[in-house]
Amino acid sequence: MKLSVIVGVLLIALGAVGLVYKGFSYESRETVAKIGPIEATAETTKEVPIPEVLSIVAIVVGIGVIAIGARK
Question: Model pTM?
Answer without folding.
Answer: 0.72
